Amino acid sequence: MTPGFADPVADAQACFRTILDAMARPGRVQSVFGATAPAPLCDAAAAVLLTLLDHETPLWLDPLAAAARPWIEFHTGAPKGASFAMALSLPDLNAFPAGTDEMPETSATIVVQVASLTGGRAYRLAGPGLREPAVIRIAGLPDDFASIWQRNHALFPRGIDLILCAGNTLTALPRGVSVKEA
Questions:
Q1: Phi and psi at residue 28, in whole multiples of 5°?
Q2: Does the predicted model carry a pTM greater than 0.70?
Q3: What is the span of the domain harbouring residue 76?
């Protein structure tokens, strides 16, 4: 069993600030350090899970990432469920809770491991947290991701939030951000 964070308190605090900054500034690629990921997870995905999960935070785990379940359970105690999800490719967003109009905060956050946050298809982001539209390149999302995201975005204030991870980098796509192909 590989360790979690090298310095559990300081690394979790630093990662939490990074995740908050990524949610506040959609599409900005951020680096995280300190986590040692078990296969098949990348270091950023492992850091996000170590930071956001605990024994009261249910996690849906992609069957292709099942080899990492003992590590996740040991370090976080997260039960099975769907408040958070960890996927090695974009799952069907309709399979996860999107919250309600009265309680949009009950929606799921999905951590998706992608091939790259610096190369691949270009997407134009607009909305809260962006003074002007931004462009991000992401490799590893489905070809129809922009239309998938438009359907999710139309549910606002309900909807799914995404944290995309590649290597030791991450970025976030909160449900309030619109995404179009650039």
A1: -75, 125
A2: yes
A3: 8-181
